[in-house]
Amino acid sequence: MTDPYLQVTWTDPETQARGYLVIDRLLGGASSGGLRMRSGCTLAEVADLARTMSLKEALNYRPSDRYVPYGGAKGGIDFDPRRPEARGVLTRYLGAMKPYIDTCWATGEDLGVQQRSLDEAAAEAGIASTVQAALPHVPDGPEAGLARLDAGFAAEVGGISLADLIGGYGVARATVAALRHRGDRVRGATAAVQGFGTMGGALARYLTEAGLRVVAVADQHGVVANPAGLDVEHLLAHRTADGLVDRERLRPDDRPVESDWLSVPCDVLVTAAIPYAVDERNHHRVSARYVVEGANISVTAGAERALSARGTAVIPDFVANSAGNAWWWWTLFGDIEPTAESAYARVSSVMEDLVVSALDGAADGSMTPREAATARAESCLALLKDRPRG
């Protein structure tokens, strides 16, 4: 494992909050990766995320696309985003990172940071666009690219922004692709989802649409379960502003339970919240045949090896949740139309390809799906190193 290209540590002069930027590598002079804010965020976590972003970007390389993947990067702030001082911390962090955002780091929303707040804070910090570093590479010019991106963000599905749905849709399609490829049923398969915010809520909705039965949802207050299947739309309609299940509005058969979310009996366990959620201390409680990483770096390397050894397929984060990142670039560069129909069609096709490739590579047991996907990404990175941008 090589050292990252750049690591920056920042201290907020007003709150003493720590912030980090890690650029794993530059490709074509630029890098891509979101900005997160959470209590306990560390430089090591941000570095792990930046490495993962390099793989995520590379996997979406298609020679026929206008978009040519960037290197991986990530920003992180160790601060509770619910505190009233969070907005000021975010603005000051962006001001400190402005030289990188203007030149080599294209960023967007991530855990604890919503795109609207990020855009507003960036404007206050004198940053024209959080994707400024990507704009010189748009073949038909920055104005055309930003107009497409604005249209993509304005697109809605059922009154909800496409931008808030596309990541969860991609994870759901990755789950369906894995079930089908291994010959397991989709309709009637059971799933438990850890996290019910933007990502978790969207993927629970799309798992249900695909015919799976979501039997449990976990948030920071515990687990809500129903073996017959939760009414996901009801839970979403009564979700709190913090993305939590409103326990006061549950149906009679949807009940808070004492059980640990990892041990809920189900076919598929989907992570959609915090990093390192499944680790060496708790993986033995997982009974699911599939673990799908909707959240970045949510399964540690040791836990993944142990799960794979006992037959649980782990669909890695940089495969399963890559749609949200790729959608930005496909839209900005004009590889898809800024519509839900175009986005969903492309995501479904790409998820099928990536998941089948990872599972096929692991079929003989000589490697895990992550290792197979990493090998594919590294091959793409080798091709990208010498490819000029248009």
Explain what you see:
This protein is of the alpha/beta class. The chain has two domains: 6-51 and 59-137, Leucine Dehydrogenase, chain A, domain 1 (Rossmann fold); 160-383, NAD(P)-binding Rossmann-like Domain (Rossmann fold, 3-Layer(aba) Sandwich). The chain has twelve helices and 15 strands. Helix 1 (43-59) links the parallel strand 4 and strand 5. Helix 1 crosses helix 12, helix 4 packs across helix 10 and helix 5 (162-181) runs parallel beside helix 11.
Quick rundown:
The chain is 41% helix and 16% strand.
Whole-number mean pLDDT? 94
Major sheet description: 7 strands, mixed
| Relevant CATH superfamily of the largest domain | NAD(P)-binding Rossmann-like Domain
> Judging from the principal axes of the Cα atoms, what is the shape?
globular
The tally of helices reads 12
Uncertain residue segments: none
Strand order of the largest sheet: 12-11-10-9-13-14-15
The share of residues in helices is: 40-55%
Q: What percentage of the residues does DSSP assign to strands (E)?
A: 15-25%
Radius of gyration: 20 Å
CATH class of the largest domain: Alpha Beta
Ends: how far apart?
30 Å
**How many separate structural domains?**
2
N-to-C series of helices and strands: EEEEHEHEHHEEHEHEEHEEEHEHHHH
Q: What is the CATH T-level topology of the largest domain?
A: Rossmann fold
Number of strands: 15
| Class from secondary-structure proportions | alpha/beta
